[in-house]
């Protein structure tokens, strides 16, 4: 998201109307519902986390303890166990 100058995009009468509500402040305009993106859609984060979670399950199945995985992935033991449960459901 980047900032745009209202005077470069909107007609003067619209700017004056908005100024009645928020004069000189910042205003966030949300995307239209049909243009919204789901979480992680604009980046590789979702894919990267999925790959990490598959790797965690693989290493766990190879005998690496949940406690050891917490040290390698900087996650809590509860998070590691949740990831293992979720990934086992997918497989």
TrEMBL record:
Gene3D superfamilies: Homeodomain-like. InterPro entries: c-mor_Regulatory_Protein (IPR052411), Homeodomain-like_sf (IPR009057), YraL-like (IPR049739). Transmembrane segments: none annotated. This is Mor transcription activator domain-containing protein. It comes from Romboutsia weinsteinii.
């Amino acid at each position: 998201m980047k900032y745009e100058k209202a005077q470069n995009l909107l007609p003067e009468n619209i700017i004056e109307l908005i100024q009645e509500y928020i004069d000189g402040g910042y205003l966030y305009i949300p995307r239209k519902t049909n243009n919204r993106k789901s979480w992680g859609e604009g980046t590789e984060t979702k894919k990267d986390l999925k790959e990490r979670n598959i790797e965690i399950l693989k290493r766990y199945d190879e005998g690496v303890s949940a406690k050891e995985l917490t040290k390698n992935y900087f996650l809590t033991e509860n998070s590691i166990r949740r990831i293992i449960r979720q990934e086992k459901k997918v497989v």
